[in-house]
Every structure is written in C-alpha cells, then in structure tokens.
Amino acid sequence: MGSLFTDVKVFERTEITPQGKISKVHKVTAVTTSGTLFSVDIAEKDFSKERVAEILAAKAKEIVDIESL
C-alpha cells in the first residue's frame, strides 16, 4: 500500500464539535510518488496503522489518477 506515497507525518489536533464536544483528529500528510504533498484528517476512532495506510493509499491513487488526465 505504501508504494503510492512516502514521507508520512502525523499531527494531532483537538477540535470542538458544533455540539460543543471535544474531539481528537489526526492530520496526516504524505507525498505521492509524483511529488504532490497532500493531507487527510483522520478521526481518533479510525486512527490505526492499517486504516491510515488504507486512507492514504486511496487518496494518493485519486491524486495520481487526476494528474494523469
């Protein structure tokens, strides 16, 4: 899965929802093999090695497909 992206960095943020609840969100940045920097926000409940790799691979594939137009 990691073949579409490299240079992964994670930043943890705390947000307040519209309902006033506190929520942890992880902003994960990576670089596609073509050199495009991108980021995704991942909720605390989805923050696992497998799920993050899956989300990054899907986003990187989407970017590579768009760049090939």
Would you kindly provide a written description of the structure presented here, covering whatever features stand out?
The protein is α+β, with helices and mostly antiparallel strands and 69 residues long. It has a single domain, classed as Nuclear Transport Factor 2, Chain: A (Roll). It contains one helix and three strands; from the N terminus they run βββα. It has one helix spanning 49-67, and strands spanning 5-16, 22-32, 37-43. Strands 1-2-3 form a three-stranded antiparallel sheet. A hairpin with a 5-residue loop joins strand 1 and strand 2. It is elongated and about 40 Å long. The model has no long low-confidence stretch (mean pLDDT 93).
Q: What is the topological layout?
A:
Elements lengths: L4 E12 L5 E11 L4 E7 L5 H19 L2
Antiparallel strand pairs: 1-2, 2-3
